[in-house]
Amino acid sequence: MSIAIDHSGKVALVTGSGAGIGREVARWMAQAGAHVVVNDVRHEHAERVVAEITHLGGSAQVHVADLRDDDAPDAMVAEIVDRHGRLDIAVNNVGMYPPGRVPKPFVDGRGDDYRDIIDQNLVLAALCGRAEAEAMTASGGGIILFVSSGETTRPAPFTSIYAAAKAGLNHLVSSMAVELGPAGIRVLAMAPGTTRTETVAAAFTDERFAEITASTPLRYAVEHDELARLAVFLTSDLARAITGQLILADAGAFLSRSRPPNDGGPGT
């Protein structure tokens, strides 16, 4: 006996999927049978992911857009609906620190630091979710999954504003789930632990990364494909009773309060 997740015939959008976690989510969504819209601000990155997917027999297309533009989420979703008639799955992965912003002590932050970080991790996500929800309501339902952060469950120095923005996202998820459930839309968030994405690898030394990993009960770093498999499951009918929740995939990090400071590296 086996249980397979089948997204065949579904249209899935993955934002920020030109690299890192988003790239792996896009690849696994395609492997499960979905047609994947690979969104990224970097055309060459998005093209590379689409090429990887099609080489493996999957179906995908590129959508280049900078979602920090308030009009971009609506335009992106409208183009998907015009081309395919619907949007079934949306994985909102854009976040982290905007260009030019890094973790810093709370007292060193200034207005632009706060506004840029909150805008990228909460406002941008809300605008994407709004556009996706409108399209899904018109077509009878769907699933919206946001990538949140383990920083919301295990506070660490130098990440207060980032963590607050992601905590706001967590509450947005539960509020959206209540409001959109009657329209057949499930809304969820998943929170990765520290994952060695390209951004994290560039910011942390191997020693720092090892310290963070050692502070988790399972003593290992979360892998990209583990998060991708979770995303595929949460957006499938196997998880149809789950909505409005934050699902942790952090190697048990939330159980520990001994996380090393994030002095100079990005949040997770």
Looking at the structure, the CATH topology is Rossmann fold
Helix content: 40-55%
Overall 3D shape: globular
User: Would you identify the CATH architecture?
Assistant: 3-Layer(aba) Sandwich
Could you give a short account of the major beta sheet? 7 strands, parallel
Number of strands: 7
State the fourth-level CATH superfamily. Answer: NAD(P)-binding Rossmann-like Domain
- The string of secondary-structure elements, in order, is EHEHEHEHEHEHHHE
User: Strands across the major sheet, in which order?
Assistant: 3-2-1-4-5-6-7
The rounded Rg comes to 18 Å
CATH class, named Alpha Beta
Separate helix tally: 8
Average pLDDT number = 90
Structural domains: how many:
1
**Which structural class matches the secondary elements?**
alpha/beta
Question: Can you put this structure into words, describing what you see?
Answer:
The protein has 8 helices and 7 strands. It has a 7-stranded parallel sheet, with helices on both faces. With 268 residues, the chain is of the alpha/beta class. It has one domain: Rossmann fold (3-Layer(aba) Sandwich), CATH 3.40.50. The model has no long low-confidence stretch (mean pLDDT 90). The chain is globular.
